Amino acid sequence: MTAASMYEPRSDTRVTSLALGTWLVLASATMLFGALFSSYVLLRVGSATWPDTRSMLPVAQTATLTVLLVVATWQARQRPLYTAACGIAFVAVAILGLWRMWTMGVVPAAHLMVACWYVLIGVHATYVVAGSVAAACAVRARDAVPAHQAERLRVLRLYWCFLDVTWVAIVLCFWVR
Amino acid sequence: MGAAGTGERSLIIRAVRLTDHKVVGLQYALTSFAFLFVGFLLMLLMRWQLAWPTSPLPSAVAAVVGETNAPGGYMAPEFYNQLVAMHGSVMVFLAVVPLLTGAFGTYLVPLQIGAARMVFPRATAAAYWLYLAAGLVMLLGFAAEGGAANTGWTSYPPLAVMATRGQDFWLCGILLLGVSTTLAAINTIATVVQLRAPGLTFMRLPFFVWTQLVAALLLLLAYPSLQAAAILQLMDRLAGSSFFLPSGLVVSGVPLQGYSGGGNPLLWQHLFWFLGHPEVYVLILPAMGIVAEIIANNTRRALWGYKAMVASALFLGVMSLVVWAHHMFLTGMGTRLGTFFQITTMIVSIPSVVIVTSLILSLWGGSIRFTTPMLFALAFLPMFGIGGLSGLPLGLAASDVILHDTWYVVGHFHFVVAPGTLFAIFAGLYYWFPKVTGRQMNHALGVVHFWGSLLAMTAIFLPMFTLGLRGVNRRLYDAGLQYVHAQDTLGIQTHMTWAAIFLGLSQLPLVANIILSVRRGLVAGPNPWGATTLEWAASSPPPPDNFTSTPRVVSGAYEYSVPGDPTDFRMQGELA
Fold this sequence. Notes:
The complex is a heterodimer of chains A (about 180) and B (about 575). Chain A has about 180 residues and is mainly α. Chain A is about 75% helix and about 0% strand. Chain A is elongated. Classes of the chains: A mainly alpha (about 180), B mainly alpha (about 575). The interface between A and B is large, with 36 and 42 residues.
């Protein structure tokens, strides 16, 4: 396939292959997070005790993570380098938070709620890493055909929007009592 | 250009070839046939134990298996459990599904839609290498302390959480396979949607392509559930969490200490079967697709009810996502939920019956050619019929309560997967071999292979229904030696083992046929079967970009015996 069909819409489907591929990645990711959120709900509903989950989310750390994600998404169409940098910073802050919890003895073995937090943050961070790599690749391809680059960045932002929505869902999971 | 330039070019060409869907398809084929062989060997070991549970293994086999797994030459029960788990895992995850979607799908889909390649060529190659890594990681479990995974291919917790180290290898393999499967599924869907040749509308697609499309959609949407489950179980095993461990767990009479509890073992079953059941359709749909191509070609007439078959495949795909809990009637899910899953299970059988009925009706009035692929395709119909219909009592809670976990279940799904799906794979192998190699396979050897396999598989799997109906449980290390009601069934196990050995011998004509035909088979030409679909417009084997020019499709996929035509087939497309 030539590069053109990757970045230019097919006449009958009216979608580029890159966009379709990304939508399919997001469909798969939705099912993965859907399975994890469903598990969270099932375990929480079935659990005799469920600690106050808001203590899991220090306001400063949560705000920092949220701002980094929003900036990453906002910059995806103009400055993918910023997106990549914010993504890496997000992962670093998230790992730091988990590490601090671990050293304080708040480990997955302590309670199901803590284990859920580790899993959701970990899987989400994995997708953030993938998005950062994609953003870094988009930087490298800046000298490509402008229309192709625009499509690449449009799709990049779509992916990051998904990460934002997922992040909001995770925060809500642990914020709602 | 100097030597360096030549070297550089050859390197690039080699890199391009590695992402060529035909090369990757062949890599998939060789690897998954190798895994099929491994799964077969594991089965032979199990069958030996079931036939002669009080006798030692043959000395050569015992030496290979090792003293730990066979102390004094007698198979250890723990090793038998590993064989059960790994036979199922290897056959489903590493052999049959990759053969159908990875080998046949990757090789044929671009050719059948008139494309030069898959839409994401590097993802094609990445999917293969991840699949290979997943398989090797799973098998490496045999070298781990305590051996490979040993809690069945379903890996139910809490047992699986407390199993030996091999379970970690199994879970890592599942995760790697998940990434591979997702890449491959996305690639297949996007390729079919985006790279169809001009004029190839969706309702002109060969049925095989439709089945690959639905299978890819199922894998894309269902596999993440198993990935989530694998992540949670790995957390339970490695990080000490309790996703699947309930409070107050007692193991071997001793209360389990040092875990938080509060988890739910049934959560695993829901997540597992959300993939586990659609996986059945992932393997049966492409098998039906292969059989449909071969039946149309060898009856020299269009498929009967093509539109109904396509609609059924789509409906089957949707319904297969809402039947998973019929594997869990014995978990005490309650009658209301049970009724829902019984109804959906009965409904999902309807499209399967529509497809098989259409295939049978396609035979009516055709001038049938009994070629080797057609023999296997014809045998697929009753064999899959037995497998499918014997599943209905398992989809109804009242009868499932009796039959659950007996040999009846093993007979049911083996009829679907072995003489059902595997026969379709053999049919496809004989049918497309000339396209891949440019040479025909030997018909006489094919006939020997067919009859040997048919008789052996029937002799292995049919008695399983008898065993199950007599109440003999599956997964028994001693085949039921300790149960009074199983005593007069032990002799049947011996017959089944001899049939399994005969099945292995029956594959020798296939191996000989492949080796002889690759070297000395009759030169096939581009279209030896007089077929209509686009892959037969390419030369045999197809060149790197498949077609010398972009095909232009002018008709449906099965224009056979059109009145007024000088030949009895009309190619679906013409090269510009």
